[in-house]
Amino acid sequence: MSDIGDWFKGIPFVTRYWFAGSIAVPLIGRLGLINPMYLVLWPEAFFYKFQIWRPVSSALYFPVGPGTGFLYLVNLYFLYQYSSRLETGAFDGRPADYVFMLLFNWICIVITGLIMDMQLLMIPLIMSVLYAWAQLNRDTIVSFWFGTRFKACYLPWVILGFNYIIGGSFVNELIGNLVGHLYFFLMFKYPMDLGGRTLLYTPQFLYSLFPSRRGGVSGFGVPPSSRRPAAQEQGGGGGGRHNWGQGFQLGDD
């Protein structure tokens, strides 16, 4: 148990609580401690019965069962891997900026869910984070099942197809990719590559709640990976930090 505890404590701060919530809430629903109908996003209950917890619980809940368990575990793995890599990579030392990204993506996904009557928001939120990682590391070569290799920028779309095969739908993944693209465009692409003004700012109260852990100005200073020197993309100084990005070994022995 001490090994599991040490591993859990080693997960980056924000990812740790998101990961724990994504295990605890489905488990609560599975055990029947709370009726799963109270955990999903229902517009009528949210707007007219003021069940304001539903946008949060629907982003953490997933109906785990014999037909959905594998899809749940795969996406939980994506959450752990890519959220950890973003939090310790582009957002290293800036937890407030990372929390803001999650809040921005979550708000966009909740609005979309209310409009499209989507009851489960876990996969879209995970995919939005995965998409951001893929764009910030777009030239990194990743490996998928059966030894297939391609650039990280294609990974969200490969996973969309993968989840469609094992889950029978791609709407959740598509929404997540589109929201992730919206964040990446507004925060990085438009101001840095297109010379536009910065449209997204991390609120100051988040810096008070989650202070930066190292010196430097608040906010972002990490450009998209396509604008970094090629040597940095190959991880010359990063060592093993991007091992999973360089080798997505899900399913390998």
Automatic annotation (TrEMBL):
It comes from the Eukaryota. Pfam families: DER1. Signal peptide: none annotated. Keywords: Endoplasmic reticulum, Membrane, Transmembrane, Transmembrane helix. Its main location: endoplasmic reticulum. The chain crosses the membrane at residues 17-39, 59-80, 101-134, 154-186. Residues 220-253 are annotated as: Disordered. This is Derlin. It comes from Aldrovandia affinis.
